[in-house]
Design a protein that fits this description.
The protein is an alpha+beta fold. It has helices at residues 2-15, 22-28, 39-50, 52-68, 73-84, 92-95, 105-111, 116-129, 213-220; strands spanning 88-89, 113-114, 137-144, 149-156, 165-167, 175-176, 183-189, 193-196, 204-208. The chain has nine helices and nine strands.
């Protein structure tokens, strides 16, 4: 309980920082239809930055997006969750040389791996790409009791009052939050809002998600123009 209180206090400290107007602009860099994205440019850029297999992964990502356009929302969740859960989990300090780096989806695809934040962020932006409304999605920080550490997942709310479905790289099956008793929510956010959670409820609205420094930094780096080189190669 003390640990969760300390995390909440740190979050509230961050939430007092000034708002950044770049957040929704950054989201628009990826939240377009796949036909509006410059497919050839993205693939060639990832190839030149990370190698030929990165270009193949980018092409596979485009195929996922193209093939899922007309699926139901739950089918889209399954397709995206399955695709990204094939990637390798690796700690930020090993991969990027710093303890808490939030990689963009293109960096995640390029290097073929990342930590829980990177899995959740890549799934979030891809589902936006597939037309799932932002208000149905929340990137959620939790305490994972199975591994006794903080962890990030993506939650999908069919309706504002529904039990969310959890997309996770630890437990790869999509399950209702009521079946994930190992996850204790701390805070959650999407492109517009930030919530502080109380136990397993939906949480208290705490303002704009742009108050999260890591999130604002991430949205400024979306696309393929600011790709970072990892400290280690996964392939």
């Amino acid at each position: 309980m003390t640990g969760r209180r300390e995390v909440s206090q740190r979050i509230m400290k961050v939430c007092r920082q000034s708002l950044s107007a770049t957040v929704m602009l950054g989201i628009c860099l990826l939240a377009q239809s796949s036909t509006q994205l410059n497919r050839d440019h993205i693939i060639s850029t990832l190839e030149s930055k990370y190698g030929p297999r990165a270009g193949k992964r980018a092409n596979a990502w485009f195929q996922v997006v193209d093939s899922a356009q007309n699926l139901t929302n739950e089918e889209k969740l399954t397709k995206v969750n399955t695709f990204f859960n094939l990637f390798t989990f690796v700690d930020d300090i090993k991969l990027w040389g710093e303890s808490n780096y939030w990689a963009t989806p293109m960096e995640f695809i390029g290097v073929a791996g990342g930590d829980c934040e990177d899995f959740s962020i890549a799934k979030y932006f891809t589902l936006l790409q597939l037309g799932i409304p932002d208000e149905k999605l929340r990137i959620t920080m939790v305490k994972a009791t199975s591994v006794n550490q903080y962890h990030m997942v993506l939650a999908y709310y069919e309706t504002p009052g529904s039990v969310p479905l959890v997309l996770d790289n630890l437990d790869k099956a999509i399950k209702p939050a009521t079946q994930r008793r190992d996850l204790l929510p701390v805070y959650s956010f999407n492109g517009k809002q930030l919530w502080l959670n109380k136990e397993r409820g939906r949480g208290e609205l705490a303002g704009s998600s742009s108050r999260l420094e890591k999130w604002s930094d991430l949205t400024r780096r979306l696309g393929v123009e600011r790709l970072r080189q990892p400290k280690m190669r996964l392939e």
